[in-house]
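quick one before i forget lol
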Amino acid sequence: MEFSINFVAVLVAVVVNFILGFIWYTPLFGKAWGKEMGYDPAVKPENSIVIKGMAFMVIGNFLLAWVLAWTLAGWQFIPGSEKISPLMNAMNSSFFLWLGFYVPVHLGAIVWEKKSWKLFAINAGYHLISLFVVALILTHWK
């Protein structure tokens, strides 16, 4: 078996995830998220802050897609893995990575940072959908 990564799929996943993040945190949940974060809707951030945030988001999206691609590629060596469909692989991978790595961080934010359950739902929901979309792209585009 060959251990390889489709770099084009990683880049497509980064772009799609960026668009998903924009949709999730702007028209879908932007107002609720801003309220839960304590932001004043009348105060608009400076362009330099927005650009910096977008750049960091692209970097984070790349790291997510790159590491997930390597993780998915490594799982192909598990006996019987060839019998799992790409859809089920994406669903299982995204759910268990989300449950084990994202949920504990968001739960910690509720306890230690005094964040709300509503904010937990918005952020954790985004991360679950994001992981699934990226995993779906990576498992279908080998």
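fyi The mean pLDDT is 93.
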